[in-house]
Amino acid sequence: MTDPKDIRSVIPHHGEVLLYPGFFTVETADELMTSLLSNIPWKQEPIRIFGKEVMQPRLTCWMADKTVDYTYSGTTMKGKGWIEPADSILDLVSAVAGIRFNGALFNLYRNGQDSMGWHRDNEKELGPNPVIASVTFGQERVFRFRDYKTKKEKYEVLLTHGSLLIMKGETQHYWEHSIPKSKSINDQRINITFRQLGNFGESS
What we know:
Blueprint: E1 8-9, E2 16-20, H1 26-39, E3 46-49, E4 52-55, E5 59-64, E6 70-72, E7 75-77, H2 86-97, E8 103-109, E9 116-119, E10 132-138, E11 141-147, E12 154-159, E13 164-168, H3 171-174, E14 175-179, E15 189-195
């Protein structure tokens, strides 16, 4: 686990983003990476952007408690329960975040040409101030933040093998994030983004 003195704050205001480098030891992260590559049913799914259907520039898998579904960019994914080693990672990350996550989006970046465009995790199912926890295995990648309205204030952090990043508070209101392409990267990265979904703010 990360030494508390090594925990880094990434953004200075309007939300909180904390980086836990070395959350998993290198040995554990290596083992989890190998297991995830073998056991997760990776797929390249289409999404809808500006009314046009395109293939996502990475492989994905949705895993969640049964009956917990997730819809984004016109794609709905069904929760069918957890498998190893995902459920063990879920327990560890939930304990640190102080919230029991009930779903996770798995992303496999095959090389530096796989990427994630600018976006906010602000779907209504995530609640008004969602806690999002993201773990990284494999190739380190740059993770960028920028002010959602002005696009001018920017910060970035390097997500390394075995690291944990937690976004919470008002982060998704004021900041968007992305993972840019990189021509120099040829290795794989697995990212697991844990969320808690519910019927927030809906009347019965």
